[in-house]
Design goal:
Elements: H1 2-10, H2 12-33, H3 41-50, H4 58-63, H5 79-94, H6 96-103, H7 106-136, H8 154-181, H9 186-207, H10 212-235, E1 237-244, E2 247-249, E3 252-254, E4 258-264, H11 271-287, H12 295-303, H13 309-330, H14 333-342, E5 345-346, H15 354-388, H16 400-422
Antiparallel strand pairs: 1-4, 1-5, 2-3
Helix pairs in contact: 2-8, 2-9, 5-6, 5-7, 6-7, 7-8, 8-9, 9-10, 9-16, 10-15, 10-16, 11-13, 13-15, 14-15
Amino acid sequence: MLSAFTQAFRTPDLRAKLLFTLGIMALFRLGSILPAPGVNLANVKACIGESQDQGLLSLVNVFSGGALLQLSVFALGIMPYITASIIIQLLRVVIPRFEELHKEGQAGTAKLTEYTRYLTIGLGLLQSSTIVATASSGRLFPGCTHEIIPGGSVLTMLLMVITMTAGTGLIMWLGELITERGIGNGMSLLIFTSIVAQFPSNMFSIAGGNGGAAKFLIVVGVVLAATLAVVYIEQAQRRIPVQYAKRMIGRRQYGGSTTYIPVKINTAGVIPVIFASSILAMPQLVSSFASPTSKWVQWIMTHLQQTHPIYLTAYGILILCFAFFYTAITFDAEEIADNMKRYGGFIPGIRAGEPTVRYLSYVINRITTAGSIYLVVLALIPTLAVIWLDLSQHLPFGGTTILIMVGVGLQTVKEVNSQLQQRHYEGFLS
């Protein structure tokens, strides 16, 4: 592996791509620690040290690499783009025009990407306004008496909103630059960078507490076990055999080949977990603007904490539901069956047309069942472990961070490996 790494940097064009990607990632981290105009950084750090209630914005904070709670230029991170992408994908089911654009190929995809960009800016404007309003009212850090935004004038808050929204647009541009000129998927790598930036500090904070050595070793064991499970499951796939009939065109024979349809066990990826976390964060968002003495607000703040059984149960159920829902959107059995019929392909023992659709639906439902259970276990087991160890504050997003880190890492290594093999070098995975 070390020799493959050396060969990657010895190859001029590949070295340029790797250095460009690393440079963009470093620039992204710089923007994550650069405070927005009008923010008192010393007071923000003091409030972070005093406040223990970060459950409301923990999801966004993880994907921003801790930039949200620091009110930096990149406070929103990549979350608006993720949300916009998911919304555009879901709208394909509702709006026929979006589905037509999806089927048009490269031109249609470019149009959908443009819509995603516009929606990202809109969501960034909305989220930045909410965060600035929450910070100015003192609700971002409950119990903190320090003034985060000194003065709190309308002009200052407007400048903060514009800066954070512009930061969202810049992050989106940086991600696209990595995809075009670097190595791997840009947006995924920026998410990877955000999560990895927080992971060491969380681990060291565990080691520095009471009973730190024993708890640290247990957490390391849980992380390693979850990592092995992610590597195994993410690499696993169900191969559905496809046979193409022989055709005579003139004097030449075409077809007759055998291939397969690869179906991943976890087809939905990490999207169901993000959906579930976002849905469960909404009641807390609404309650933060209501009176703290209200009974329904107190019930939400008590029962929808990340360590409460009701929250964990609802979390698991939502992951299961969203796994089936998102898989049904991304894996269209009718479209696959029509394409196979158009090109003379068929599944051995299965008639073309409606029987093929039923068979594909049967297979994908069985695989999705296993994949959804895997997601629930991966999301809950690390969380339950840190709850048992009383360390829930240090790993706010449970096993999802491991899923994203390992998944993005594997995909990036595969891309570097393929480019090395194109140049007749042995790759990382050889």
